[in-house]
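Many introductory courses stop at the sequence. We go one step further.
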Amino acid sequence: MKTADQLRNLFEKYLNNNCDAIEMQQLMDYFELGENPTQLKSLISDALEDWDEPYENNSAIANVLVKVDKDLFDQIQHTKKYAPEAKHKKLKVWMQIAAVAAMVTIIFSGIYFFNNQSAKLPAVAKVLPQEVQPGEFGATLTMANGQKVNLGSASNGEISRESGIVISKTDDGRLVYESVGNVSDPNALNTLSTARGETYQVRLPDGSLVYLNAASSITYSASLMQNGKRMVKLNGEAYFEVAKDKLHPFIVETNKQTIEVLGTHFNISSYADDETEKTTLLEGSVKVSASGNTKILKPGQQAKLHEGKIQVSETDTDLAVAWKNNEFVVESEHIENIMKMVERWYNVEVVYLGEKTNQRFSGKVSRFDKLSKVLEIVEYTGEAHFKVKGRTVYVSR
């Protein structure tokens, strides 16, 4: 049990937005116990009484008072400003009333803050470090007849014969399409999808190779051909090595743009929860079209699509395809972008505690490393801290 002075210092840190995740949990645990209501009221009322600025100017104290009648606290502020001599009478009365409400508010806010649990929550500090393993090679193939095949557990060899196409899984785990005759149904669609924590590769009927990142999918016909064009629809992120065929353009459609090539190597990042879609060209030439705008990319360029506008700039292509080479590489990235990568590859949920850092981070690790190794890069700066509980990562400053 903490001493009165320790609790007072901890509460003052809370009001000044200086609590880390562990200290926050300790404070919430103490308020939830409610073993000494007199001390609690004194703690809160003294802190509020000593506050020199209007409580609206501080986010922490505003959170504490969110369920307390605003008129009541306006009167407190007025009394402090215009009648300092009333501090030991009227103000103390107001503070005692307010303290009870504030205490209830803190208890409520604390419980809501940590997953809205009604039972007493275990302190974050008591949670032992847990290792989250990296993603793995796996995907689900949904064929035109509705059959689903878990490719992670499927045996090597022939998986299906469909519309004149043989679908096989190779010894190295890759999905391969091979034409063995006339395609009976050229419009029969297949979808290859990865969940969080999965990645996969597929060689399409024309010989093009596609690397699929986590939480992504591509949809295509068994023959790949539609109206004389090789057509693929993408959700998420994929790296393409397109086989050359001047007579049949290769088209990739996302929810917001269309990319057309003849034969080239490029990467597309088109996650639904990202504000910007990125197309990065490594070799050859691509045409990017969206909302009536068209741009032609040269090797080493990246097109960013945001709010219907396409911006082209020179870029480090190694960053764009690091995931394909089984690496986590970030350069001057915000914490939100890094944690999205972590969510997708390690299949975890990310929860932010308090204000997010504006710091940008750079670093490089293998995608085969455990989650803790990735988080160390960010935490080393001192600008962000992490607590892992099960498959949830709590992020604080």
